[in-house]
Amino acid sequence: MQAWQVHENGEPGEVMRQVDTAPPVPGDGQVLLRVRAANVNFPDALLCRGQYQVRPPLPFTPGVEICGETEDGRRVLANPALPHGGFAEYAVADAAALLPAPDALDDAEAAALHIGYQTGWFGLHRRARLEAGETLLVHAAAGGVGSAAVQLGKAAGARVIGVVGGAGKAAVARELGCDVVIDRHGEDVIAAVKEATGGRGADVIYDPVGGAAYAQSAKTVAFEGRIVVVGFASGTIPSPALNHALVKNYAILGLHWGLYNTKNPKLVQHCHEQLTELAARGAIKPLVSERVPLSGAAAAVQRVADGATTGRVVVVPARENGAAA
Q1: Cα(68)–Cα(199) distance, rounded to whole angstroms?
Q2: Structural contact between residues 146 and 233, judged by C-beta atoms closer than 8 angstroms
Q3: Given a cut of 60, is residue 321 above it in pLDDT?
Q4: How far is CA 50 from CA 9, 19, 259, in A?
């Protein structure tokens, strides 16, 4: 089969190599899946760099989120078991963790539903307890993680403010349904949020960026607001001033979605049921901006790492008959 492998750590575009190799052999409790579509996530770039919390042995195949097909023909969502990730024609995954792919979504959309939308759902509902009528601010609102949070916020009845970088991303954020869009390249984010909220600030802030974005969050969060920290795409991990949280009465909430797979997997299943229902009624639909062939996987991971994409970029290996999956 064709697969991408990383033999040494570095930038994805430099260290990912396409090879012809034997399909992986499932271990105990695992199944072999034919990859119908593999979504590109920022953690794929971190894996290539050796900066992710999980460091699989070299060589490994990145790709942490797929829509796959079981040997009996079922279409499923899975997080492949590294080192046999999703940027390949076949991957392996834990049988107990497979989730049915929603009928309302095609392969590429389904591949993009799992991690980003689960993270958004847990962040907004489980951690921040977002309520209808509240104001939600989403950093990097046109990106893969941010776009999911925007859609979930709108589905929950929130007023959504999206912060983006550039006119093209601003247009995408408007299409996603943001009520207010702030282009950080040309606007003062803090002043714009205060103007949009009448000086009150945002009730919930969803931050996958860190760095300067977190500093803006602390200055724009409302009384009894909640800042949900979900990642550090900026590359800078902020050091919050806890005295500021005290005097302003806001909460800083961390969210590492992967912990739920081990600490409370039933909640992951419950979340998937909620997401499937939302997808069935059209309330959410992953924004797939690019569908690329398997040969384009390394370049796609690099573009996501560089912050040069909107929505989701999905790798779609060719079927045996040559048609796109």
Answers
A1: 47
A2: no
A3: no
A4: 6, 20, 20
Question: What's the N-to-C CA distance of the chain in angstroms?
Answer: 16
Helices marked H in the chain: 12-15, 42-49, 107-111, 114-121, 144-155, 167-176, 189-196, 212-220, 242-248, 258-263, 265-280, 297-305
Residue 280 has which token pair?
A: 């069935």
Give me 287's structure tokens: 């924004």
Q: DSSP per residue over 94-160, as a string?
A: EGGG-EEPPTTS-HHHHHTTHHHHHHHHIIIIIIS---TT-EEEEETTTSHHHHHHHHHHHHTT-EE
- Angle at which helices 167-176 and 144-155 cross, to 10°: 30
Taking the complete model, does pTM exceed 0.70, yes or no? yes
Which tens digit of pLDDT belongs to each residue from 215-243?
999 999 999 999 999 988 888 999 998 99
